[in-house]
Design brief:
There is one protein chain. The chain has 423 residues and is mainly alpha-helical. The chain folds into three domains: 143 residues; 80 residues, 2-Layer Sandwich (Alpha-Beta Plaits), CATH 3.30.70; 139 residues, Orthogonal Bundle (Arc Repressor Mutant, subunit A). 62% of the residues lie in helices and 5% in strands. It contains 17 helices and five strands. It has a five-stranded mixed β-sheet with strand order 2-3-1-4-5, sandwiched between helices. It starts with 10 loop residues before the first helix and ends in a 9-residue tail after the last helix.
Amino acid sequence: MSSRSERRLSPQIATIIEPALAAASAEVIAAIAASVPEYARPLEGRFGDNLRLGIGEALREFVNSIRDPEAVRENTVYYELGAGEMRHGRTLDALQSAYRVGARIAWVQVAEAAREAAVSAEDQALLAEAIFAFIDELAAASVAGYSQARSELERQRERRRGALLSILIATDPSQAALVRAAAEADWPLPKSVAAVATEPGEAELIAARIGPECLGGAVEGTGAVVVADPDGPGRRAVVDRALAGRSVAIGPTVAPTRCGFSWRLATTAARLPRSPTASAATAATTTVAATTTTATTANNSSAAAVRADEHLVELLIATNLELLALAAERAIAPISGERKSNRERLIATVLAYVHHGGNAAAVARALSIHPQTARTRIRRLHELYGGDLDDPDRRLEIELGLRYTVLAESLTSSSSDGIGREK
């Protein structure tokens, strides 16, 4: 290595100091063990081999740098020393301290050899400068190795967390498998989680806003976030702030092994109608819209997330379409012979009747019609449905079937522009 001054050391200096540095290796190792607490342990195994190799290599390289300043040197050993510190979870402080201790011991040995050989004061000064410049070069190589190892570990960690995210929401893992995957991803396994469905480009940002304990990424074209302990003290407010202003749906809080269930409800909730006009019966009354698109009240505000556990009836319908289609056929059958406009009014009346416990005045208010009109419609319903409206089980089946008829069309029309879908 060349001196920082324009004048270079004579190659003869290398010959003078080489024996002293060769003998200094053991002393440097002992001084480092005594002065750097992190290295105050038996120099055995890979750690000891690497330290001895690094010290011996450094002393030889320094001599060679004086003998041939223009020679290209590999700093692989010192690069790997820095990377090793990162992999063992240590900072660079100990290694940097070891370099300083090594430089001090080396200078003592070199200075003594130089004095005995009557090396000029000017050359001794250049020699001291060269030693510490050389140590700076080694330290820089270690910093580069440390940084590269940290980047690699971070990339590996992100890959493993991405895999963990997929395991959580796309499978129903056993507790043992989940514990293993979480440990590999360096993710403290929480007691409970909730899944969030959002746009693919939003997931990682949302996760970062909530905190490092959250997982976020894209899964099968949909943005997915797993929120750890969503019901913990103060967590609701933190989650709400992170979700504000974004198109999101959040599933119920569940045990980590049931995160897939939370995810399925979140993605279904994201597809619930976002406008009352989506209902097939809106021309008839506002009740149909109110009873089939309760979830849209939250969705209409860009600042509110759709919380699946607040819309369980809509989700019950949306996740059991085949069964409810059968119930819908049975529910529609008594009024299938009516004109379309009258059929829509009767559907709205049935839903209002069930919702308000058969109270004609409440039905009239809900439908914005005259009370006598409401009573007339209710009598007609009893003529059509017979005693079914008085039987709790049949009444529930009729309600679910009719709600399906108005929700199914909305779900179909919104499936092309929901979260994670082509627009």
